[in-house]
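Hi support team,

I've been running sequence recovery on a batch of backbones for a student project. Most finish fine, but this one hangs at about 90% for roughly twenty minutes before it completes. I'm not sure whether the input is malformed or the queue is just slow. I've pasted the structure tokens below so you can try to reproduce it. Let me know if you need the job ID as well.

Thanks,
M.K.
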């Protein structure tokens, strides 16, 4: 990598880091809401995957049965 490209890349990294540092951390209420939403989505996803596994097993059994 040439010096100019490296300097430009470092500059982009520094600007991105500055933007990240300037972000306001979510308040406790928002964080709790996001955690609850994540837990719900995780649970629903697990159930859907379980349902899909059951359907796949059922199809395999029908094909071989």
């Amino acid at each position: 990598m040439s010096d100019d490209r490296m300097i430009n890349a470092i500059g982009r990294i520094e600007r991105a880091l500055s933007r990240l540092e300037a972000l306001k951390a979510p308040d406790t209420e928002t964080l709790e809401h996001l955690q609850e939403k994540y837990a719900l989505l995780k649970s629903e996803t697990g159930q859907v995957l379980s349902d899909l596994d059951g359907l796949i097993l059922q199809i395999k059994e029908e094909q071989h049965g």
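--
Follow-up from support: It reproduced on our side and the slowdown came from queue contention, not your input. The longest helix spans residues 28-64. No action needed from you.
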